[in-house]
Structure formats: C-alpha cells, structure tokens
Amino acid sequence: MNVSASTLSLTVADVDASLAFLTTHLGYQVAMAADGFASLTREDAAVDIVLLAKGTEVLPPEQRDQQATGLILALTVSDLAAEEARLRAAGAPITMPLREEPWGERLFQLTDPNGVVVQLVEWATPSTS
C-alpha cells in the first residue's frame, strides 16, 4: 500500500462552526464546500479534514447520527510556546494548558465548538549528558 494523502472525516452538528474554528485558528483553507459539507486543507503536511453534517444522507444509515467524539486531532508543530501565545491572544478555546510529559512530549489542547479536540504537540530535544 502506498498512501498518497491523509484525510480525517468528522461528522459534526454544525459544519460552519468547525469550519470557522479550523480556518481562523489553525490555518486551514476551504478546498470545497456545499450545504452540510466542507473539505479543508493546508499547504503543509497536516492531515486534510472533511466536515460532514450530522444526519447527512451521504453517510450509511448506521453512521448518520454519530458525531466526532473521543478522538484527538494531533498536529506536530514547531515553536509550540509561540503557537499557544498566538492562540491565547486570538481568544482560541484552550482547554488544556501547555505542559510537558515525562517522555518529552510538550502539548496543549483546544476544543472546537462541536467538541472536537485538537492537540498541538512538539517533541522536546533529549538532553545529551
């Protein structure tokens, strides 16, 4: 298998709210959109995102009323502290403050209006002793 691109499809109650969050705070751009649907992309290595309205008939019947829950969209970035400062200044909903885990992961989380958790991550450089 050769994967040429990655897309995360999220079923949400309010497509426009998630679209505004992702374009305003995380630099996504709309590739295409229609009623109850948006395809978002970035020019870097971030995963593309498709937003589908809950109840849409495009989905199989058993998936139509499910919503994106229990997942974390993790994006690895450089200069995590600067990103947190930028997002705080912009009034983004930071729901877990910046912290460092014992294994060297530095991270913080935001939550979009539909409850989708976005985690920005940076890996600490191991010290050479």
From TrEMBL:
InterPro entries: Glyas_Bleomycin-R_OHBP_Dase, Glyas_Fos-R_dOase_dom, VOC_core
One Pfam family recorded for the sequence: Glyoxalase
Tree of life domain: Bacteria
Domain called VOC: residue spans: 4-123
Name listed for the protein in its UniProt record: VOC family protein
Species this protein is from: Streptomyces zaomyceticus
